[in-house]
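HUMAN: Spend a minute on the protein record below and explain its fold to me.
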Amino acid sequence: MKKLTILIVLMTHAFWSLGQPQNRIPENYQLVYSNDFRKAKKSDFYFTDETAWRLTKVGENRVLALVGQSDYQPKVRSPFNIALIKDLLLGDFVMEVELCQTGKEYGHRDLCLFFNVKDPSDFYYVHLATKPDPHAHNIFLVNDEPRVAIGKKVSGGVDWGTTTEWHKVRIERNVKEGTIKVYFGDMDHPVMETVDTHFDQGRIGFGSFDDTGMVDNVKVWAPKQLEKSETFFD
């Protein structure tokens, strides 16, 4: 009877292990950044416009919220509302974050994630929107000229749901291989994939082209951090 009980426990554990998504953090990576915003300050970020963002409570949680439109005009056509983490400069990384979109439903309803941000006119960003088109729901390259969609495999869009619904999002960036993978909700099957080698390092951040939303529970793993500069948006 005792052997049977042990066997049942092992089989149950194996069943649940197979059914659960794996964390898939490379062995040489370490957790280099974690933020649940309980102790965060606005001074922890570079903003295109600080007045468009708030650190606010939602229930028992404290989140970073994009609440309005930034008074900011980029030199080339690209998102207006950006918050970049100051103390983080990376090449390869894995980031997981929870996002809540608080705007109305329409084709371009979006939130964005920024990475390998070299300067205000050179970076990648992921635009997660309801429907794809040449300017929405894709991986974009901003290379000192208006953004260009570079996704090689892109899903038919994402369902943001209600304005109080949270979604887990994951980005995997491998500089040497040039790969970028984006996951939304389902951590086993990416909603976007591409290969690009324009930028090998830079900052990470959050925002939107021209919508609103909230950010919580950010975790970033990487093999190492790189040297940081002290200024960004001038």
